[in-house]
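Ticket #211: bound-state structure for 2-oxoglutaric acid.
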Amino acid sequence: MQTAIRPASLAEKCVQALTLEPGGALRYHPSWLDSETTGLLYSEFLDNLNWRQLPVRLFGRWVPQPRLVDFHADPGVAYTYAGLKLAGDGWPVTLARLRDAASAAAGVNFNSVLCNLYRDGRDHMGWHADDERELGKNPVIASVSLGATRRFLLRPRMKPREARHEILLEPGSLLLMEGCMQHHWQHQLPKALRVKSARINLTFRAILDAF
Ligand SMILES: O=C(O)CCC(=O)C(=O)O
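RESOLUTION: The complex was predicted; output attached.
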């Protein structure tokens, strides 16, 4: 099945905007997709994406990531993080439709998507910034959430590094990270042991040709 996608406009009033000091911005639309579309996309991606637990290099050791991942991109486009190189080989139809909707919302032509499957609240993602060179100086990243609601935390890169902002990423939501946010801020998706169901996150990125 190939789910049709008719997202809400970002001009609607329910968009929350956050300007970060000393730089960067977030825009959050909690119900960017309607609940029926959200459910259909969740089932389609859960069943049809090629979910794998791939290793990354952290502090000199290869360790399994605490979640499953998949990657899609235009042919020839590659993305490397923590020693793991992911190469694009085209787009499944529904993922391409969602990419086009996210591109229209963000005003950026995304050419890749990193897909994360958090099987339950034990799966997580640690503190990091999306600051790989191939994303360019001030990347715009569009993050679509499906499935369980999870907390998304932000902390400054400079000390004191306590979490300063928290957003509940709801199913069907769109979060845009913009400006120089990745230079000044880190983000994470912490463990949530009470969450027993799965969550899918799709982060659309524009990877530059030069890398
Ligand atoms: O799952 C999330 O919402 C966070 C994803 C993320 O931080 C990333 O892919 O860089």
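RESOLUTION NOTES: The chain has one domain: 16-205.
TICKET STATUS: resolved
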